[in-house]
Design goal:
This protein has 232 residues and is an alpha/beta fold. The protein has 9 helices and 9 strands. It has a domain of 138 residues: TIM Barrel, CATH 3.20.20. The longest helix has 14 residues. The chain starts with 5 loop residues before the first helix and ends with a helix.
Length: 232
């Protein structure tokens, strides 16, 4: 959620609740960078919304984790690399692996399930097995391998990141064969669902139909229930 007035954020939550939606994911960049984050998190929780928090880890620490854990049902983290060089290339930060592993331990202690996602690209293709060798020592709900999808801003990095279908299929097959007991979830470009609903920081509502043009509505001028009906 963007850094807008808390009352406006509550209005959006009210609109979501009216539709009958009961599960939401807070994602896109870093949700914790939004002003009044804990207040709106509590407001969602009090409105009986199940909250999954997808974070880039940097703003969660042992001081704020207990307050966050009171309101979320699951924490979703990203781990795309092993080497510091790849970290910098893909996420512009370094030395994040240790922090991610610490968060897994911390939220396990807080009894909040944690899942981990890894974006598979040309840059980190040779590190995927090593990522699981690290995660295997931790307690996570599941591990997701995601194929890079060259849509919207992703088109800018398509040549740098995109694998061909064969490469992505082969690495996921190899992981499944090598770690048969692994709870692995795979999302490829071809098999991804073609419908979703995203409310952005500026309160525009986005969806994507059959990987075609993004459709946009303004939640303050359009009824969210009507928007969802159009998406269906």
């Amino acid at each position: 959620m963007g850094d807008i007035l808390l009352d406006d954020k509550k209005k959006i939550v009210d609109e979501i609740v009216k539709t009958g939606i009961r599960k939401i994911t807070l994602s896109w960049w870093e949700p914790l960078s939004s002003g009044n984050f804990l207040e709106i998190l509590e407001y969602m929780f009090k409105n009986n919304l199940e909250i999954i928090l997808h974070s880039n880890w940097l703003l969660i620490n042992k001081n704020n984790a207990p307050n966050i854990a009171k309101y979320i049902s699951r924490l979703s983290l990203t781990l795309d690399w092993v080497s510091s060089e790849t970290q910098i290339k893909m996420r512009w930060v370094s030395n994040i692996t240790e922090h991610t592993l610490n968060l897994i331990k911390l939220f396990n202690e807080l009894k909040i399930p944690v899942n981990v996602k890894s974006l598979v690209t040309k840059m980190n293709l040779n590190e995927i097995e090593k990522i699981w060798e690290i995660l295997n020592a931790e307690k996570i709900s599941y591990w997701s391998l995601l194929e890079f999808i060259p849509l919207n801003r992703g088109k800018i990095n398509q040549e740098t990141y995109s694998l061909n279908d064969w490469e992505f299929t082969e690495i996921t097959k190899k992981i499944k064969e090598k770690f048969p007991e692994l709870n692995l979830r795979v999302r490829s470009f071809a098999s991804s669902g073609d419908k979703y609903c995203l409310i952005s920081a500026d309160w525009k509502v986005y969806t994507n139909l059959s990987w075609k043009d993004i459709l946009v509505w303004d939640i303050f001028t359009d009824n969210l229930s009507n928007i969802l009906s159009e998406i269906k």
